Amino acid sequence: MSAIQPLPLMPDCGGLIRTIALTLPASFFAENRAADTVSPLIPIGNLLSALPADITATILIDRASLESARDWLGSLPATCSTELIPLAGNDSVSHPWIQDMLHVRAVDAAAEFVLVAEKAIGVSLAEYLGATSMHSDVALAGGNQLVGPDFRLVGHSSLQDDRGIGRNAAIPSQRWRKIQALDGRNIFSFGYRPEDLGKVPVSFDFSTTETCEAEMAGEKMHQCGFHVDQFVSVTGLRSSGRPLLLVADPVAHGGCNARAATELKRKLDASALWLARQGFAIERNPIPLSPAIDTNKCLPRLYNNVLLENVIRSGQKRPFVWVPHFGDTESLEEFDAMNREIWDRIGFQAIGVAGWSHLSSRNGALRCATKIINRGPDTRL
Question: CA 142 to CA 131: how far, in whole Å?
Fold first, then answer.
């Protein structure tokens, strides 16, 4: 008797986006003065203004922020539909990273939410949308998982038990098995082997890499960064029969220490090699390690933190990808352009969404701040 397969998780690619959700803390409205160095509502407003009219954005806020949120939305040149959802009672929005709070299962026109953190937000959203919700003990932030058409890419730190992957590297960990049970797609890991650091030549052709099984990662794997969506983008495309991923390629910028950028590059080079060994095609995209505009701390700009569709919208020639941009506030216009060009080259219409410098010190960008609730069918299939 075969086990019942769970309903599939919402992919990061495929059909036209119909509904997204966002969370806006009360502090964002307090930090929205013209004199403020950082105004987190700027990138959020730019994103809403860049969405097509047939997308609905549901925005969860504290009840005390309702009037401020209405005024702010009224000032935007947005054509998408927006719906404000004030939380009940004393519940509050603590941060904007809704991506990490829940997983969404695709159930025809409805949705089912798997709640993993900030459960009051997931419950409020489910009640508003008429969706079902379930609590989960799976310790997997949404930012540490990318969902492809027929695979899931999960950061190694979420797959590793406290005692490691397992005494035998061929035996999946308890966490691995729990995460596997969330969805029927095969799991692949984002991580690197220490012995691969510094072993990837400049302009290395990852397509020549021999493949192996993801479970062979073993205990000595490490993860670069804390979430896979900081440095990797799913494309929904294939290259030479392999699923194509974009993997960040960092460089120092704006006076940041070249050694820090080199160390990050070594880890991401080794991570790209491990992805290639698991059967992925790899395209690299440049990202700067640059001082944050508020803290001056050298941090990567998360150009891989995107939203995309693979189906072409009516009246368009290419599918859309929304890419975070930073050149409106920092001298990063060249990186904005290079990343748009890469997406254009692989077949997308890249839509640059400015303003994400205002959230770069918080280590998040466009995908982190959104959750796709509903997509249309992938009519390519």
Answer: 18
* Span 151-164, average pLDDT: 85
Residue 117 has which token pair? 């953190």
Where are the domains positioned within the chain?
A: 143-289
CB–CB of 358/328 below 8 Å? Answer: no
Q: Provide the token pair at 349.
A: 């219409």
Residues 6+ apart with CB under 8 A from 338: 285, 286
Residues 278 and 214: beta-carbon distance below 8 Å: yes
Residues present in the chain in total? 381
The pTM of the full predicted model, rounded to 2 decimals, is 0.94
HSE (side-chain half, CA atoms, 13 Å) at 373: 26
Q: Specify which residues 103 forms β-bridges with.
A: 114
* Cβ pair 366, 356 in contact under 8 A: yes
The answer to whether 300 touches 326, Cβ cutoff 8 Å, is no
pLDDT value at residue 162? 63
Strand pairing of 242-252 and 281-291?
A: parallel
Q: How confident is the model at residue 138 (pLDDT cuts 50, 70, 90)?
A: confident
Look up residue 86 and give its two tokens.
């004030």
**Coil, helix or strand for 133?**
strand
For residue 238, is pLDDT > 70? yes
Report whether pLDDT(348) > 60. Answer: yes
Phi, psi (rounded to 5 degrees) for 378: -85, 95
> Could you give the C-alpha distances from 233 to 6, 13, 65, 119, 343, in angstroms and in order?
25, 10, 33, 27, 11
Whether 218 has a pLDDT exceeding 60, the answer reads no
CA 191 – CA 281 distance, rounded (Å): 16
Nearest to 199 by CA among 261, 273, 279: 273
* CB 185, CB 5: distance < 8 Å: no
Q: How far is residue 31 from each of residues 28, 43, 44, 68, measured CA to CA in Å? A: 5, 13, 13, 12
Residue 222, classed as helix, strand or coil, is strand
pLDDT tens, 243-299?
999 999 999 999 999 999 999 999 999 999 999 999 999 999 999 999 999 999 999
Give the count of alpha carbons within 13 A of 146, CB side only: 30
* 320-to-349, 352, 373 alpha-carbon distances in Å: 5, 10, 17
